[in-house]
Amino acid sequence: MDQNALIEKLKEVIKPYLEDETLLEKVDGDTHLIDDLHINSANLVDIILDAEDAFDIEIDDESAERMITVKEALAVISEKIEA
Amino acid sequence: MKPRRVAITGMGVVAPNAIGRPAFTEALRRGISGIRHFPDLEALGFGCCIGGQPSLSEALKERHFTALERRQWDANNLLYGIIAAEEAWTQAGLPREQEEPDWDTGCVFGGGISGVRTLSRGMRLIDDGRVKRLGSQTVPQTMPSSISAYLSGRLGLGNWVTTNASACSTGTEAVRLAFEHIRRGGALRMLCGACDTDGPYIWGGFDALRVLTRKHNGDPQRGSRPMSASASGFVPGSGAGALLLEEWESARARGATVFGEVLGCYSLSGGQRQGGSMTAPNPEGVRRCIEGALHQAGVEATDIDAISGHLTSTMGDPLEIHAWTRALDRRGKDFPYVNALKSMIGHCLSAAGAIECVATVIQLYEGFLHPSLNCEDLHPQIGGQIAAERIVGENHSQAPRIIAKASFGFGDVNSVLIFRR
Prior knowledge:
The structure holds 2 protein chains of 2 kinds.
Chain A lengths: L2 H12 L26 H15 L5 H6 L3 H13 L1
Helix pairs in contact in A: 1-2
Chain B lengths: L5 E10 L2 E2 L1 H10 L4 E3 L1 H5 L6 E3 L5 H7 L2 H6 L3 H16 L13 E7 L4 H12 L10 H5 L3 H10 L5 E2 L7 H14 L5 E8 L3 H9 L30 E9 H7 L5 E10 L13 H15 L8 E3 L7 H13 L8 E3 L2 H4 L6 H15 L13 H4 L18 E8 L3 E8 L1
Parallel strand pairs in B: 5-6, 5-7, 10-11, 10-12
Antiparallel strand pairs in B: 1-2, 1-8, 1-9, 3-4, 7-8, 9-13, 12-13
Helix pairs in contact in B: 1-15, 5-8, 9-15, 12-13
């Protein structure tokens, strides 16, 4: 899956957790999930589970902790898809 | 300090026969039953396959919950409780977008088991070694205090926020706790009530205890028969009721509509002695509880125009009526009018008292008494104590001024409230 397709799919995963969906328009690699998208830390737990389902992967705790920005989230997802 | 008077300035209800005050008022007037047959209970081999469950439309859910909440929440008790509480809040004309918490408003909202489906799903994941898959929602939906926690966040409540539990007297007890807190000057407003959920995981235990009727799976609306000779066990139900209680002067100063007044209350336990047990109230405890409530409210037995009974459609009904006749020293044609909301909606467990309190206040405010269904064959032990005409029939338009509301719960815990128009 190319990077553009990945990011679009990740955006779909994140979308239900946003109070303001228009924030998605400005998402790039440096977007911070909690600070920029105002996702609370409890919902971050759910986003990781939804990403597991959407990409058909398993994300271990160590990798989950790295998923703070969009760039890092995509890196973890790519790694797991290739693994 | 003189105890403060306590007004009711908002009501909300999610009941098996209607949702929201206007529809519920109409259902009460017309004696609409909310009891139906549940094929899933039959498939699971339940003895009692009938019950009462509020039907929430998608439009109603969209009005109260975000898309994420609708997706993540499977705890019906929370949906019922929040819808009822927010209706009471809106009716009272209170704001919810304020930046600072409302330090003068709190909440006592009770319940039974919260999020039983969430728990069951979670337990299966844990047993499969997949604890991580629980996600974020297990704890907030399964805390006993989930309902009051959500209400305080949604409405910005900054006073005392808690949850009570006393089985089937929970809802009535919540109103009592809220009333006393305001009366003592602890808060200006208290949102109070209770919610409970439905389905096999909640109703199964009662089915196994054989306290539910097994004789009306083919005619559900005839199954809940309080005070009837052929009553054969209660019909389970679910839902929520909410009252917004407010200190009298605060209500007046805001120009709020006052739907009624709480005059007094009493709670006690029969100690599971003298015929009382885990599942049945000590009749002596019931009598004392009624007398205690009259005394606290400062009213005489002759002031009681009507009784909203606990009356569950079990063999406890004649004992309850006997306790009322002794506590009030009124019998035959001199007995107050009496009705049983459970005849329409079944026994909504922890929420029962709360929904019945809402029904009581509606009857006082609108000036009518709702019919008590399915007791055309009055139990002879009740007929021997009070005149049949005192059991409210259809089209009863005599406006009551004071109603006594009683609830008795497993564990032999009782609460009685006195309401005035």
